[in-house]
Specification:
alpha/beta, 23% helix, six-stranded parallel β-sheet, 12 strands, Rossmann fold, Elongation Factor Tu (Ef-tu), domain 3, six-stranded antiparallel β-sheet
């Protein structure tokens, strides 16, 4: 089956944190771009001669809505060629070619267990897509617990959105861990806020094995590797309960 490449143009850019921007791309030639919440696309960027130098994959951060607009949340990495391109060269009207959607990091059609989403940084993107898809489509689900980790409070991504969901979406819980913040300011926000790392949250909140829970992981390789070991070895969860996607 031939790979389909799409042309798109950047139609909107917003700062999300001091090191993260949101980019909206409008796909050309189609009225609707179909994908499943949690999937990614692979972009061919003008940053090298060889395919391995040019291609970068990014999770779609918005929920499927029948439109031809996709959102991506991209962090500026020190020395990162692709992120440097996005932050220093991409502007409104920039053309970007991509293929996809791809990936099996998606929710099942019938959700029979509680969902725990564990992420760091821009690893929150596929979970944002999944959560909004469930809410907007009114899809049946049980409890959802989003556990987000970053270094400092100014790195909390989509904070206002998730605060709103914590207030309005039945069964939705939101936890944030800050690994390097000196002081935590608790001002009645509708989410759990702790100093440390994401691992302490699920290790404290969920019992051994947790047969009624599926854990989804997305973020830096080190975090995902540690979480997989904790869930399977320490907690004794079945491997089928642990699903993950790596980047970085």
């Amino acid at each position: 089956m031939a790979t389909t490449w799409y042309d798109s143009k950047v139609i909107r850019i917003e700062d999300e944190s001091p090191t993260t921007k949101r980019f909206w791309l409008q796909v050309e030639g189609v009225d609707s771009f179909d994908f499943k919440a949690g999937q990614f696309v692979t972009m061919d960027l003008p940053i090298g001669e060889r395919r391995r130098q040019r291609w970068r994959s990014y999770s779609i951060a918005n929920a499927p809505d029948g439109s031809n607009v996709l959102e991506f949340c991209i962090v500026h990495l020190d020395g990162g060629v692709a992120s440097g391109y996005f932050f220093n060269e991409v502007k409104i009207g920039t053309e970007i070619k991509f293929k996809g959607p791809d990936g099996n990091f998606v929710l099942p059609e019938n959700i029979e267990k509680d969902l725990v989403f564990v992420c760091t940084g821009t690893g929150v993107a596929p979970f944002r897509s999944m959560i909004w898809d469930l809410k907007k489509q009114g899809k049946p689900h049980k409890n959802i617990h989003l556990i987000f980790g970053t270094r400092y409070s100014d790195g909390i991504l989509y904070q206002k959105e998730f605060e709103q969901l914590a207030r309005e979406m039945p069964g939705f819980r939101y936890s944030v861990t800050l690994s390097r913040e000196e002081e935590l300011h608790l001002n009645g926000q509708p989410f759990d806020l702790k100093k440390g790392y994401v691992h302490q949250i699920y290790l404290e909140d969920y019992p051994p094995k947790s047969p009624g829970v599926d854990f989804y992981l997305c973020g830096w390789t080190q975090m995902v590797d540690e979480a997989v070991a904790n869930l399977i070895v320490k907690m004794g969860c079945d491997r089928t309960q642990v699903k993950y996607e790596l980047y970085g």
